[in-house]
Amino acid sequence: MVISPKYRLIVLISACALFIFNLMPAVISAADKVDEIYQKAYHSILDEKWDDALKLLEVVIQDYPQNRWADDARFWKCYATEKRNSSPEKSFECYKQFIEKYPDSKWVDDAKSNMIRLAKQLRKSGKPEYEAMLQFSEQSEDEEIVLAALHALQGRGDARAFEAVESLFNDSRDPKIRKKIVYVLGTFDTPQAADKLIEIAKKDKEPEIRKEALFWLSQEHASKKITRILKEFALDDPDPDVRKKAIFCLSQVKSEDALDQLMDLARKQKDSSVRKDAIFWIGQHSDAEKTIEFLEEIVLKDPETDVQKKAIFSLSQIESENATEALVEIAKKHKSIEMRSDAIFWLGQNAESKKVIEQIKDFALRDAEVRVQKKAVFVLSQLSDDVAAKMLMEIARKHDNSKIREEAIFWLGQNSRTPQTIDALSDFALKDPDPDVQDKAVFALSQVPEGKGIPALVKLAKKHPRLQVRKKAIFWLGQSDDPRAVEAIEDILNIK
Prior knowledge:
This protein has helices at residues 5-16, 30-46, 50-63, 70-83, 88-101, 108-124, 129-133, 141-156, 159-171, 175-186, 191-203, 207-220, 224-236, 240-252, 256-268, 272-282, 288-301, 305-316, 321-333, 337-349, 354-366, 370-381, 385-398, 402-415, 419-431, 435-447, 454-463, 467-478, 483-495. It is an all-alpha fold. α13 packs antiparallel against α14 (240-252), α18 packs parallel to α20 and α27 (454-463) packs parallel to α29. The protein starts with a helix and ends with a helix.
């Protein structure tokens, strides 16, 4: 009997209506990935590892052009290019292109300031045309004249020059000019300049100017007095952006006292957002051992989940075996399942050693909590294809909890396309004692990239001993436009 195309369509639609499947587990978002790459790049900037920073920033720029760090990455690329002793012309052009591409970026003023400095350097080397090229970055001839005068005074660096710059700041009403004057004030390495910057940070009406003053205090005038002043701003300033800037500025002071002030903020500040900011920057500090011990304390004792999570993240950013061991201990012993799962997640983001990978697998196989086991399975699925496939197949074969076997099988279908993986999924669909696991294996075969699971699905649709499995295989074949799937369905309909 020949079955009409209309009847075939009805059969396929009816088959589709028979099944409702679980939603796919959440996957790590591109936003999380680019955040991680950018933070590593920024860490390399802080450590003056210019080549490492440039490689990571290039990934952010090329692979994630629309992400929220786009302008930050472009600016720091120019900065790292300059610091790597590239030609001044190349650095100047990099900043110029940055300003043209991101005219509203928060880094534009810094880029302009660096261009002015480079232009002066190039002019002295016999290339006066660069000074004329600065016109595109200025809004008026008066501003350009002011800036030229400021940098001329900066070059002198004596007491009369400081008095002139201070007077210019006091008389100016233009916020853009005043911010640039703060930059010049920051280059005077004198107690008078530090006092003026403190005054500006406390009394100026413009938050951006106050933040600029704090930044230059941390760059040129670092001392115990300054670290305590920065801490006061972090604690008491009414503007949250200024508080945040003060914490960042504390992190830029490379001293034991500055680290102690950050730790004190992280322990005692009532505002959890301040504690989280302090914890993040503590994780970037060069004193790894002291930092690890402190972050472990925060994970165990801070009353708020978000703060504990920030401490776990900061631990994951420290490239140290002791930091890895700390994450393992948190994953094993923390009283919160959520914190243990979070520690496992971040272990997986830096899992390069066999020891760490085996530890994550052990969590998947033997942990007492199902949520922790599932997180470990997901983390294993994010490793390189060969390693992930090997670990996931082992879990799918050995685990005594069918839900964890299902989880491992799901991720096998998402990440792998080798013949061994497809054979394993077919084997699970045929031999696993739990019907739900068999069904999940059928679904996983349908998700194998490039349609490589289609032949296995066809075989299951025709020959599996369970009717339910055959129907599911037919359903997923019906979702594919692969000619082999269409041919198989037509063949099955004709057999009937």
